[in-house]
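From the pipeline queue, job 12 of 40. The input is one protein chain; the requested action is below.

Action: predict structure.
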Amino acid sequence: MTQDQLKKPARTKFWMTVVLMVVLFWVSAKSTDATFSELFEGLPQIGVLLAKMFPPDWAYFSYVVDPMLETIRMALLGATFGAIIAIPLALLSASNVFESNWIVQPFRFILNLIRTIPDLLLAAIFVAIFGLGPLPGIWALTIFSLGIIAKLTYESIEAIDRGPLEAMTAVGANKIQWIFFGVIPQVLPQFLSYSIYTFEINVRAAAVLGLVGAGGIGIFYERTLGFFQYDRVASIIIFTLVVVLLIDYISTKIREKLI
């Protein structure tokens, strides 16, 4: 094949992909009644809303410190409980630890099901069970964290070096010893990194769980938005942004040390 003949299929594939993406975009826009005219008509409203937000009500910070601390505690507890429960689920979902599909596939299905349910829906369900407050938020974040950590961990387990495992099998190690001394030491840094990363995500998620009554700073988002107190909304957003950036910086440094 000449160089021109090799380029032709690649060019054809590229343009077919472009056409397919344009068609999918057009069908999606048509199905959702989304138009550029509506977009351009709504853009000026962004400026109106931002004008109502500034200047922020700086004095309102004193009212949201405790709810923000509650949000962080919810995120920490959710990530911790989720990480603990994720350990056995990740092991049972790893095909190189348990080679039987009768074991692996049901647990992978459970993890897929968990990740399918949005965190807000989980919070609403637990609010219906436990009532208003931070407890439903902690449970929702626990399930949410479990899905993320277990998924990432079992993928890391499947990528470990099999040499130490084969050596342990050769000297007669049982499954428990095999896991504790051959699997866990290899994936522990990644597991801790995933747990810290999930805590970071949970802080963002917990900030809006209060919209369904699950405690934290979200309750103040709902309250201030409901009374059109946009200057206070801006204060909460700025405070949340500072907290998230700080946690993101610290967690990134910790994860760099672990990996």
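Job complete. The chain has a mean pLDDT of 81.
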